[in-house]
């Protein structure tokens, strides 16, 4: 289509050259013609991928697979699987330790200092309320209150005489509260006795007082050497401590140690192997404990390139009164999960992986305060894992599916035809590694142009159809073919209706006889079950109102002034190479391909002659059609974005053979007539 701006500019120039000359106002027609579109309609418009030239005479052979039903069936994914573990000071240990204190003979009785180094016979003595001895327990802790633990007090007599009685008491220095006490009897020279004190419910501070309330010694059996440096050794030893609260330097220790199996609830499938296509392991740690920690997490049965999954996370102690939190996310893509349990050679199970979790306290040497209110919480979960493949028993399922799918072969056709020599096959393509059956409850074909519906019924559909499965771990689909013919089905009526849509009701049953594969079912991420209807035939038709359609984009947007547009003409040249005649119908559509108006062929002559006996390379029958658009139609041009061409091939009354080189060639020019005034 050409613009007429140049013509208008020329007219304006004439006006300027004529200034000063009075002329009578005049009107005339401006007539210009421009090409609009070309269309090429053939039976290839049915779908050139399916009409195959297989015979020597270049006639059509139709081979068409239409997907009717498509289902993944096994969109397997693991549900979120979580484990939460925590611990507090009930599991935390203080370091077993011991301190010693020594009370000399000179401290027990200062009068012996005068006889130091002499050999004397010592009398029996009895003394009470000796001055308290300070004991520094800071090597243990600053302070601790115990749920459990023991204090072992050991008295060793290094005096040259028998210690007949010792009443000993241990106090906290700050408040004089009694920690422990005990009476020790008849300790001969260089002998010892130990008493264990239960510390449950008791508080001990680092500052202690050792108090001897009474000490009695026997007389020596003869002269003995007086050594005022010798005396009584008091040993304090703490063990099996489980504090309720403590301010201490906690030692290195393992506070969580879990080595166990975790079962994934799959609600049917029993999986042995699972290769992850996508999904994460999320580990979340939260702690209020003021000491450094290390988390050691392993799944020995999850490997990538033969290497087991392992994550070691170190995290610092929390600040006083605060918590510390961290999340570690592990991408499991590419990992293979062995779901047979910890030791499948001993006990082979399914949906079970072996996992190890350890949490270690890393002593910094700092003295920190921890109470039973402090804790460390660890949660980890497998977040929805989708498989690249999985192996096991996929379970017994019934999968009904009701829907509607396009039948593309006859997407632009309406009318009916007697079709001959059709071979029709129902093909199940199965790339899911399970045994199964298909129950076809309904296959209805609908022609939306003729508003007709035909059911495809068959005696074969009376019972479930067994479908084959591919070889183990093969991605190549196994095909099951069921031939439909006039003897066992209504296939000819179904196809002769030229359906554009198929309504289906299909039921798929997997593993109808249970776990016959012994956990050797398998599925890949792209595994699916597809049901196709395949048509094969020589395209030899008895045509009755066979319609070809084409839609061409147009642009009338450059028309200069619709108000000055007198009329427009669409000029069609049509070459018909088909051996049948045709009728043509032209419609204007808007940008959404909605109807605007039909265009009328001049004199109502929309018939197109056919070409009988045409040889390839010859020109077919030529027809010229003219469509005029008067004022009442011109108003639609501004919104017209498409022209729809509809041709109805008319039957000669007998079967005809159509060749792949035959076509209906349509070209269109547009001519506008304007009214212009000077």
Describe the protein.
By secondary structure, this protein is mainly β. The protein folds into four domains: 31-43 and 544-677, Jelly Rolls; 61-74 and 394-538, Jelly Rolls (Sandwich); 97-248, Jelly Rolls (Sandwich); 256-361 and 373-393, Sandwich (Jelly Rolls), CATH 2.60.120. The chain contains five helices and 45 strands. The strands form nine sheets. Strands 4, 17, 18, 19, 20, 21, 22, 23, 25 and 34 form a ten-stranded antiparallel sheet that branches. Strands 5, 9, 12, 13, 16 and 24 form a six-stranded antiparallel sheet that branches. β10 (163-172) and β11 (178-187) form a beta hairpin. The protein is elongated, with a radius of gyration of 50 Å. Mean pLDDT is 80; it is low at 1-32 and 44-54.
């Amino acid at each position: 289509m050409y613009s007429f701006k140049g013509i208008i500019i020329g007219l304006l120039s004439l006006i300027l050259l004529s200034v000063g000359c009075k002329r009578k106002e005049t009107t005339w027609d401006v007539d210009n013609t421009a090409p609009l579109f070309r269309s090429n309609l053939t039976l290839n418009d049915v779908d050139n991928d399916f009409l195959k030239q297989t015979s020597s005479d270049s006639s059509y052979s139709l081979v068409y697979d239409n997907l009717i039903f498509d289902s993944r069936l096994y969109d397997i994914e693991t549900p979120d699987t979580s484990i939460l573990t925590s611990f507090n000071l009930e599991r935390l240990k203080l370091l077993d330790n011991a301190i010693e204190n020594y009370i000399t003979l000179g401290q027990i009785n200062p009068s012996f200092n005068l006889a130091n180094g002499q050999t004397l016979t010592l009398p029996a003595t009895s003394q009470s309320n000796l001055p308290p001895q300070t004991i520094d327990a800071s090597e243990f802790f600053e302070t601790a209150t115990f749920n459990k633990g023991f204090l072992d007090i050991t008295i060793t007599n290094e005096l040259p005489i028998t210690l007949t009685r010792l009443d000993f008491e241990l106090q906290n220095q700050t408040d004089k509260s009694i920690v422990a006490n005990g009476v020790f009897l008849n300790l001969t020279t260089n002998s010892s006795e130990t008493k264990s004190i239960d510390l449950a419910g008791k508080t001990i501070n680092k500052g202690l007082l050792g108090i001897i309330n009474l000490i009695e010694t026997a007389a020596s059996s003869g002269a003995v050497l007086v050594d005022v440096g010798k005396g009584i050794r008091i040993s304090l030893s703490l063990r099996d401590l489980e504090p309720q609260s403590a301010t201490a330097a906690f030692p290195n220790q393992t506070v969580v140690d879990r080595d166990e199996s975790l079962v994934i609830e799959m609600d049917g499938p029993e999986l042995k192997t699972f290769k992850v296509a996508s999904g994460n392991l999320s580990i979340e740690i939260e702690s209020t404990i003021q000491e450094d920690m290390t988390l050691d997490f392993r799944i020995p049965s999850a490997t990538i390139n033969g290497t087991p999954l392992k994550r070691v996370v170190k995290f610092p102690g929390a600040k006083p009164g605060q918590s510390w939190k961290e999340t570690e996310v592990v991408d499991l893509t590419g990992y293979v999960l062995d779901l047979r349990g910890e030791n499948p050679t001993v006990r082979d199970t399914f949906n079970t992986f072996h996992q190890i979790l350890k949490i270690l306290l890393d002593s910094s040497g700092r003295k920190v305060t921890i109470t039973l209110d402090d804790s460390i919480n660890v949660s980890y979960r497998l977040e929805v894992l989708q498989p690249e493949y999985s192996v096991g028993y996929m379970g017994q399922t019934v999968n009904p599916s009701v829907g509607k799918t396009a039948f593309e072969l006859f997407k632009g056709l309406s009318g009916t035809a007697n079709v001959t020599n059709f071979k029709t096959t129902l093909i199940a393509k199965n790339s899911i590694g399970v045994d199964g059956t298909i129950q076809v409850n309904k296959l209805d074909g609908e022609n939306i142009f003729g508003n007709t519906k035909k059911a495809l019924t068959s005696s074969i559909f009376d019972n479930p159809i067994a479908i084959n499965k591919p070889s183990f771990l093969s991605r190549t689909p196994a095909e099951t073919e069921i031939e439909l013919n006039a003897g066992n089905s209504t296939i000819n009526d179904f196809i002769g209706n030229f359906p554009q849509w198929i309504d289906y009701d299909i039921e798929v049953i997997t593993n109808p006889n249970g776990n016959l594969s012994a956990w050797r079912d398998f599925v890949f991420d792209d595994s699916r079950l597809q049901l196709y209807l395949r048509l094969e035939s020589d395209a030899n038709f008895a045509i009755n109102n066979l319609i070809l359609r084409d839609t061409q984009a147009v642009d009338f947007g450059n028309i200069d002034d619709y108000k000055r547009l007198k009329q427009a003409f669409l000029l069609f040249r049509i070459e018909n190479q088909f051996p049948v005649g045709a009728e043509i119908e032209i419609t204007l559509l808007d940008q959404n391909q909605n109807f605007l108006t039909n265009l009328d062929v001049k004199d109502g002559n929309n018939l197109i002659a056919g070409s009988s006996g045409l040889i390839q390379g010859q020109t077919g029958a030529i027809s010229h059609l003219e469509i005029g658009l008067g004022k009442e139609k011109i108003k639609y041009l501004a919104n017209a974005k498409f022209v729809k061409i509809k041709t109805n091939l008319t039957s000669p009354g007998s079967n005809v053979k159509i060749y792949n080189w035959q076509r209906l060639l349509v070209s269109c020019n547009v001519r506008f007539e304007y009214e212009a005034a000077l």
